Amino acid sequence: MYGPPGCSKTMVAKALATEMTLNFISIKGPELFNKWVGESERSVRELFRKARNAAPSIIFFDEIDAISVERKSQKSGGSGVGDRVLAQLLIELDGVEGNKAVTVVAATNRPDMIDKALLRPGRLNRLLYVPLPDASAREKIFKIRLESAPLADDVSYKELVESTEMYSGAEIVNVCNEAALIAMKEDFDIEFIQMRHFLGALSRVKPQTTQAMVRHYENYASQHSEF
Fold first, then answer.
1. Is domain 135-204 given the CATH code 2.60.40.60 in the classification?
2. According to the model, what pLDDT value does residue 227 have?
3. Terminal-residue alpha carbon distance, the chain
4. Rounded to whole angstroms, how far apart are CA atoms 142 and 174?
5. Which regions of the chain carry the CATH code 1.10.8.60?
6. DSSP 92
7. What is the mean pLDDT of residues 72-93?
8. Which of 8, 131, 152, 153 counts the highest number of beta carbons within 10 A?
9. Which of 81-90, 188-197, 206-215 is least confident?
């Protein structure tokens, strides 16, 4: 899975494991690295061994670009720890092929940096673009997040949705949290969160994804995505 930061790629992986009743093993790419020679590769082997022992299971690699940067872009010339970790990962993925009890899912914000060998058939060859939430999704995020919040009658979901175009799901959650904090700072015993509190939050929380980034993801999706 790839797309802008904060678009719930990790949540999608967790939901997949829950729906399929699989054990969920999650790790961030940088966590595999160790300063001792050979330990990083050993961490990769141990991760897959753990997944096989816990099968049926899903291994979820978050920030996989940290361990799978295209080798021609590295200065190590193929001898660095990053190359050795990637080589070990490719070996383990080849071993998983045909083993229906272990599923490997990964997420990245930089799909263009992924080494092409990782995307070959039998490895991570199914690509899914996870875009910014559209208007309908943003409304659902607001309603779920604010379901138990004491809202004033002037709070307009329509206005909130229209004001959060280009916001990620994580940023929308941040807007909700910031609005509550603004209300509490104004009056700790305040009874309701009002629309002006949300407007104040929107002035502080700005979207980090640009139109140029969206075009980049969409161009990549038009060439690579299969779903």
1. no
2. 56
3. 11
4. 11
5. 135-204
6. H
7. 73
8. 8
9. 81-90
Alpha-carbon span 20 to 58, nearest angstrom: 10
The Cβ of residue 132 has, within 10 Å, a number of other Cβ atoms equal to: 22
Whether the per-residue pLDDT at 79 is higher than 70: the answer is no
Residue 63 corresponds to which tokens in the numbers above?
């920030």
Give the residue from 128, 129, 96, 98 showing the smallest Cα distance to 216.
129
In this structure, what token pair is assigned to residue 164?
């959060």
Tokens found for residue 185: 């700072």
Asked if 28 and 62 touch (Cβ cutoff 8 Å), the reply is: yes
Q: What is the DSSP string of 45-71?
A: HHHHHHHHHT-SEEEEEETGGGT-B-G
Give yes or no for a contact between 141 and 12, defined as CB atoms under 8 angstroms apart: no
For the chain, the average pLDDT equals 90
Helix-helix angle 135-145:169-186, to 10 degrees: 40
Euclidean distance between CA atoms 55 and 99, whole angstroms: 10
Q: 33-69, pLDDT tens digit by residue?
A: 887 878 889 999 999 999 999 999 999 999 998 887 6
**Mean pLDDT, rounded, for 17-26:** 93
Cβ atoms of 82 and 69 closer than 8 Å: yes
